[in-house]
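Marked as duplicate of an earlier ticket. Keeping the data here for the record.
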Amino acid sequence: MSFRSATAVDYVEDVSPGSGALPPRAWYPVSDAESLSLNGGWRFRLSPTADAEDDAFAEPGYDAGGWAEVSVPGHWVLQGHGAPIYTNHLYPFPVDPPRVPTENPTGDHLRFFDLPEGWDLADGGAVLRFDGVESCARVWLNGTDIGEFKGSRLPHEFAVGQLLKPAGNVLAVRVHQWSAGSYLEDQDQWWLPGIFRDVTLLHRPAGSALDFFVHASYDHVDGAGTLRVDSDVAGRVTVPELGIDVATGEPVTVPVEAWTAETPRLYDGVLATEGERVPLRIGFRTVVLEDGLIKVNGRPVLFKGVNRHEWHHEKGRALDPETMLADVLLMKRHNVNAVRTSHYPPHPAFLDLCDEYGLWVIDECDLETHGFTEQAWRDNPVDDDRWTPALLDRAARMVERDKNHPSVVIWSLGNEAGTGRGLTAMAEWIHGRDASRLVHYEGDIDCRDTDVYSRMYADNAEVERIGRELDGGTHKRRRLPFILCEYGHAMGNGPGGLADYQRIFESYDRLQGGFIWEWIDHGIKDERYGYAYGGDFGEELHDGNFVCDGLVFPDREPSPGLVEYKKVIEPVRIDGDGADGTVRVTNGYDFADLSALDFEWSYQVGGETVESGPLAVPALAAGGSAEVKLPEPPVAAGSGETQWTVRAVLGADAGWGPRGHVVAWGQFPVSGRQLPAFAASAGPVASGDGSITLGPAVFDARSGALRSIGSVAVTGPRLDVWRAPTDNDDGAAWQSDIRYGALWRKFGLHRMRHRLDAVEQTGDALTVRTRVAPAAWEFGLVTVYRWTTDGSRLRLTVSVAPDGDWTVPLPRLGVRLGLTAADRVRWFGGGPGEAYPDTRSASMVGRWESTVDGLQTPYLRPQENGARADVRWAELGGLRIEGDPEFWFTARRWTTEQLDAAAHRTGLTPGDTVWVNLDHGQHGIGSQSCGPGVLPQYQLHAGPAEFSFVFTEIG
């Protein structure tokens, strides 16, 4: 037995990747060899420093009866021991590589196990595999020190056959939160120590497989696939469906169906060595850089992707198969076709799902040193030869583990690690090991080591210049394809402007798409806040809710941003002019035809469907289009605004979605909206009780404020320009361009004063004249409210004229009113979800219903949300409200000011009043939380405006 003294922890700060581990090899989930999962309950002891305890706990017979218990896979800070830390890029410890703080939480883990019956210790050996441990671990088995390792999101295996016994085995693992490896893992996520992926004991019978490489290429010219399986241990490869039975290392060419993300055809095979049979899932495809484009099977691809951190709101990065499958199914159902595994290789089972269901994958190495930007990249490990062995080890463990996945088409060296010799060494090694894939790294701005020109958060104008090849750069870079590896920062309400990016992508061949940042909000379920984010655990340094920037909420409920993205990237375009009775259908897939889709038409009058039926559309090949004749409009369908809606739906159940699942849709107006007829009649009548009556309405005579419409009590309405700033309104502090959220507060738009200038009763109208302006500034809005009635209904016409020099756009422009009793809401307009000027692609015009609570979008940090666009009329609280022109509609049980003040969902308390905003205009959303702001065409500038609403009391 071997034991170390309590002070022998030099390995923690050693820049080497570790010692004792076996060379990396291909990962496979099952074979006919025995295996034993060591997941489950482990005994656990937490110490404040790396050397607080000696190694006696690893000795058989050690009494751990007083220890706690944690679940493995898991993070001890999410199981009541210590606390998580979130930083975007700042290291949460002093930067002095490779040194780490003395205060270094260290978790000792113990697992006791017996071997299954029938495990033959005399036959071959055994391997102990750790799929992920953060950030540094030392391992003992039955008292013997077998090694230590770093590389948190990478597998490490140890030969342990000679140490096993049939019963009473003791596995001891000491895990340190901080190590030299932490300098390589500054990845914009929670710092979560622990054994967070599977631990497995693998029997390795004599003659069992070691490493193997499945080469499965596809010739798009003749439709042939060539298979060769290189194996460290000789054997045979069989693929019964293809009639293949060949020796390892021997190529064979046969006709096959190709694998693509759209048509993920897999063939079941077996690698049989003397001692083991390993199932294979083989996808034939070829990835090349040709004509300056990324081509798969001879065709360029357009990535419609997402960046995916691994996350579960209770378990952190300890994901189970059901959670991984939920991600894949959600992506497929929302037309996502690609994943960048930011910023580390995912659990290997996730890639199995990408193979099966069809997703392109950029597999990214477990590397980021972003915090060194604070010292101008001085002492950056990737440009320090001492660290190069660790970098090469990380690259090799990624490539060797994942090389047999057809879904992986690009290797990424890592993220935001600056530049340096170590990255060049990684790229050279990967190119030499696997010439069948491309190499990516966004930080290689001149593309010295990479095969793809990649950027993050470039604005629309720059992306278009790149598409037109006007961006300059090195000669090599100008000949390479371009992707946005991060764009559309999905923090809070947004991202805005996705449709504008997509139009540019589809206009230039060189632009091969992008990856939204990011897939999921990293909120931690917390009884205090609903979901916690940075700073909620008392961190010394943190970056707040910057960790909540996903297209799905922490519980994987889709956000409006994901619904918008689905519409923007839909693979079938349905365009046209409903008035002429035809639509144009275009197949936007890169490979698949439309045979898997059915098409349906429906005809709406006044937002309600009056007739529907199937629509015959040819099974267009990828890129093809056709004019399709719609049926004759229904006869005697009624009067009112009319339109066609055409949908493309799954024609049969697919592995990722049910029959009838909507893939794409389009709407086409036929006849326009008929504005509400209104003829003013009786004028205002003053009464002796300080009120004015106008038709069904009662006003305060002094202020001209509306009190009620019939039996419905009303507070307001009055002009409102404020919204609770979104994360994208506030922008990021490091950005040099204008951040309007801060300017809105500076100029006092959240505290506008309403000066009453006159209340006039003239003829058939009650007119209230005001000036709305912030304290301390000379500019304002001259606002006139003109009230009229036709006897049973009430009309408000609002006229707004800017006064003074307005140098910022308005957050919103409309009126706010309060209703004391409102719950159910019906409206005719855009829905079912929220929309803003640059996030309205997915807003479908129709009749919709909801509760007031159902109108809210529960962003983790409360902010402006819930607006419905293009509303013709809305009904709630006993009133019907019709707009001229169409308006934005919002209703909530708290004021905008209360929404603005809340830091978490639990900070919002419903009141007795429902506050309703009827907006003539809204400022766009953009993605300035880490990207470009609102495009000019979506900005709401102060200018003369007039808009009207007709109010009717309803039963």
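See parent ticket for discussion. The chain has eleven helices and 60 strands.
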